[in-house]
Design brief:
Layout lengths: L3 E5 L2 E5 L4 H14 L2 E4 L10 H13 L11 E7 L8 H7 L4 E4 L19 H10 L2 E4 L13 H16 L5 E3 L5 H9 L4 E5 L1 H5 L3 H4 L16 H12 L5 E3 L8 H5 L13 H11 L6 H13 L7 E10 L4 E3 L2 E3 L7 E6 L2
Parallel strand pairs: 2-3, 3-4, 4-5, 5-6, 6-7, 7-8, 8-9
Antiparallel strand pairs: 1-10, 10-13, 11-12
Helix pairs in contact: 3-4, 6-9
The structure holds N-carbamoyl-L-aspartate and zinc ion.
Length: about 350
């Protein structure tokens, strides 16, 4: 069995970098592994305009390591779609190098209160995005109180994805952090304008893990982990070689204290060992030969961006992930913190 694996440098197509001290704490972890990342715009206040995104991009570039691995990391900027995003902002956004807009249904997740209340309110903007070639990244959950939490994604397909695909057939849409078999089947059957990202936590764990040995707040993320049949369907999609499934960690740092309190925050911090965690999933499925395309080719191809140059090397070598990492004044507990991982990035 081979003990090292070299891949073209991968990209993370869904990442939360935050701002300020938090940004400076987490950015080196992603930059060490990934050449580029799609940076989510759910800051407080959200990144809703081209000008705000360009300022944020500058702060991210300033937080990069000055030399060595990660010094050339490139953030790919997104805007936060609201009911009032002006259609004429789309041309400015495209000219400034912004690649996508993120749809958060209002109230769906962390910092989403400025999100979209009714997709029809955004139709003129979606039209402009389709014209300009900007992608729409969706948090695919309905938020109605009468829908069971575990059915939010399946209902989103019926109520939002189907009309969206019908009305904007050439708008590229990424169904972010897919969590269900229904979602995987939907994307598999869709045409070349629909893709999906898959996170390490949804590939590694099912919802039992949240409740094993007492409540596990560090496995609470949104969308919530689903049952084992769903996890298996996601693994199958990831290792299938299908070009419209790709890597997106949804690494979402929150201070440990804020996750461990009542009303704890949602989000798993996976950036510290993201590629290693995906390697474990592909290894367990006997599909290490499919990891490179999933991590390094499919996303770039779908976004219409060049594939990266250079490589990253993974070694089969047990190592212990730290239990905590500094996070400004606070601490952060990484996914799998304190546990032994089977693969390690050795550059
Ligand atoms: C994300 C965050 O904390 O920003 N949390 C999460 O559980 N994934 C928001 C999101 O992507 O839904
Ligand atoms: Zn996210």
């Amino acid at each position: 069995m081979s003990t090292t694996l070299s891949l073209t440098r991968p990209d993370d197509w869904h990442l939360h970098l935050r701002d300020g001290d938090a940004l400076r704490a987490v950015l080196p972890h992603s930059a060490r592994q990934f050449a580029r990342a799609i940076v989510m715009p759910n800051l407080r206040p959200p990144v809703t305009t081209t000008a705000l995104a360009l300022d944020y991009r500058r702060r991210i570039l300033d937080a990069r390591p000055h030399e060595g691995p990660g010094a050339d990391f490139q953030p790919l900027m997104t805007l936060y779609l609201t009911d009032r995003t002006p259609p004429d902002e789309m041309r400015r956004a495209r000219e400034a190098g912004i690649v996508a807009l993120k749809l958060y249904p209002a109230g769906a997740t962390t910092n989403s209160d400025a999100g979209v209340t009714d997709l029809r309110k955004t139709y003129a903007t979606l039209e402009a995005m389709q014209r300009e070639g900007l992608l729409l990244l969706v948090h695919g959950e309905v938020t109605d109180a009468d829908i069971d939490l575990f059915d939010r994604e399946a209902v989103f397909i019926e109520r939002v994805m189907q009309p969206l695909r019908r009305d904007f057939p050439e708008l590229k849409v990424v169904f972010e952090h897919l969590t269900t078999r229904e979602g995987a089947q939907y994307v598999q059957a869709a045409d070349r304008y629909t893709a999906a990202t898959l996170t390490p936590q949804h590939l590694l764990y099912n919802r039992n893990a949240i409740f094993l040995n007492g409540l596990q707040p560090h496995l609470y993320c949104l969308p919530v982990l689903k049952g084992e049949e769903h996890r298996r369907a996601l693994v199958q999609a990831a290792v299938s070689g299908h070009p419209r499934f790709f890597l997106g960690t949804d690494s979402a740092p929150h201070a440990a204290a804020l996750k461990e309190q009542a009303g704890g925050h949602a989000g798993c911090y996976s950036a510290l060992s993201a590629l290693e965690l995906y390697a474990e999933v592909f290894d367990a499925a006997g599909a290490l030969d499919k990891l490179e395309a999933f991590a390094s080719f499919h996303g770039a191809d779908f976004y219409g961006l060049p594939r990266n140059r250079g490589t990253v090397t993974l070694k089969r070598e047990p190592w212990q992930l730290p239990q905590t990492v500094p996070f400004g004044e606070a601490t952060l507990k990484p996914l799998r913190g304190g546990e032994t991982l089977a693969w390690r990035v050795v550059q």
